[in-house]
Specification:
Distance between the termini: 58 Å
Radius of gyration: 22 Å
Keywords: Membrane, Transmembrane, Transmembrane helix, Transport
InterPro entries: MFS, MFS_dom, MFS_trans_sf
Structural class: mainly alpha
Strand content: under 5%
Order of helices and strands: HHHHHHHHHHHHHHHHH
Number of helices: 17
Organism: Companilactobacillus crustorum JCM 15951
Number of domains: 2
Helix content: over 70%
Number of strands: 0
Subcellular location: Cell membrane
GO molecular function, one term: transmembrane transporter activity
């Protein structure tokens, strides 16, 4: 892409960054619009916009058009992401929601399995634009199925939308994440980066003050008084941070430190989503029978154990041991995600399902961005500390530097998982008293 568009790599990276920024900026708005005007209506419109955005992304017409097209695609994605869990919760009866949410998790994991392989196959034989164009027929099929299968909206509040709050929240997200992404590129002490982060902080303070005062805010802060909701959202955030520690560091370990070819490293890492695909719907179905609290706790224990396993990986560790822990983190996520989503969606009123789904999706995106940033920061800071000099990339002559940094990074990741596990365990014990 960088070569075709005749742009430097740092500019090409904004094709990914702008997608994440736009999604985070709009999730709450579309969650609220789903509550007000119908989640299924917003979901259908989002599917159409995502497909149009994908089509436009496929045209090789320069960076500006590509960024605009990615923004359209991200708007559509935000509309579907903020409403899908709410639709499931509203359409399925209470005793079937866990299984349905588990199926959603399976399809997400399935996408992560197919995506890299299909993308690699496309790049091997066709122009990069087809990575986006392949979404078009899939999107058209989804639109047709949605029109035929999805029922009419059940809950429509027609509540007035807090435009000021929505705008302020978007400003917070855009300036914060633009600052983070730009800071990783040029350094966090640059005036432009500090300025963006300062704007984000000021806008956030104003946003909170306004949301506490108005009658119908874009974000009902009182929703966080619900302990089940808040704990589940917080734990989801932490686990996505930990997952992206793994996603960032493990390719370095397999390809650079262990010398695996990219395709074989990809096969090894696919153990994670493959196991999750199998386990998630089973866990969801079991949670419908016994309740979700115990399963979330068990899942978090498994994820935590996997981080301990990664802490002891070395240059001579048999690869089957590494793959065992990759499978374990997939199993743990499969057990954890659907029951945790059930707790989130079942802990709010029907009129707030859209905003709850938006917050849940936002936690996932936050976790992903924080995980990517934190993993690279911890990894290379630790490597620099060990080397006694600044290290900004993998050094083939010193693989032991990477191993030491990796162990520190996964120690941090284990601590993150442990916090989630302890909080969930305490909640479970209190519930059983």
């Amino acid at each position: 892409m960088s070569k075709d568009l005749k742009i430097p790599m740092n500019q090409a990276e904004w094709v990914v960054s702008i997608y994440l920024i736009v999604i985070c900026a709009l999730l709450l708005l579309f969650g609220k619009l789903g509550d007000a005007y119908g989640k299924i209506r917003i979901f259908k419109l989002g599917s159409i916009l995502f497909t149009i955005g994908s089509l436009l992304c496929g045209f090789n017409s320069g960076l500006l058009l590509l960024l605009i097209s990615r923004s359209i695609q991200a708007i559509g994605a935000a509309m579907t992401m903020s409403t899908n869990n709410g639709i499931i919760t509203e359409v399925f009866p209470f005793n079937e929601r866990g299984r349905a949410l588990g199926m959603i998790g399976s399809f997400v994991a399935l996408g992560s399995i197919a995506g890299p392989g299909v993308g690699g196959l496309i790049l091997a034989h066709m122009n990069w634009g087809y990575i986006f164009l392949i979404n078009v027929p899939v999107g058209i099929i989804a639109i047709i199925l949605g029109m035929k299968i999805l029922p009419k909206d059940i809950t429509v509040t027609k509540q007035k939308i807090d435009k000021v709050g929505a705008t302020l929240f978007a400003i917070v997200m855009v300036t914060l994440f633009a600052g983070i992404f730009l800071g990783q590129e040029i350094g966090f002490v640059k005036p432009v980066v500090l300025g963006l982060i300062l704007i984000a902080i000021i806008a956030f303070v104003i946003f909170i003050r306004i949301e506490l005062r108005i009658e119908k805010p874009i974000l009902e802060l009182k929703i966080f008084k619900n302990a089940n909701f808040s704990i589940s959202i917080f734990c989801a955030l932490l686990i996505f941070v930990a997952n992206f520690f793994f996603n960032v560091i493990s390719p370095f370990y397999l390809e650079n430190a262990r010398g695996l070819a990219a395709n074989y490293a990809g096969y090894a890492l696919m153990t994670f989503p493959i196991v999750q695909v199998i386990v998630a719907p089973i866990s969801g179905a079991i949670s419908d029978k016994i309740g979700p609290e115990l399963l979330t706790f068990i899942g978090l224990i498994m994820i935590s154990i996997s981080q301990v396993g990664y802490m002891f990986m070395g240059l001579a560790t048999p690869l089957w041991i590494f793959m065992f822990f990759v499978g374990l983190v997939g199993f743990g996520n499969g057990v954890f995600q659907a029951p945790n989503n059930s707790i989130v969606m079942n802990s709010v009123d029907v009129k707030d399902l859209g905003i709850a789904g938006g917050i849940n999706a936002l936690a996932r995106e936050f976790g992903m961005i924080i995980g990517i940033s934190a993993a690279t920061t911890v990894l290379f800071s630790s490597m620099s500390h060990t080397a006694g000099r600044t290290v900004t990339s993998y050094e083939p002559a010193h693989p032991e530097l990477f191993i030491s940094g990796m162990r520190v990074a996964f120690t941090v990741s284990f601590g993150i998982c442990l916090i989630a596990t302890v909080i969930t365990g305490i909640r479970m014990l209190r519930r059983n008293k």
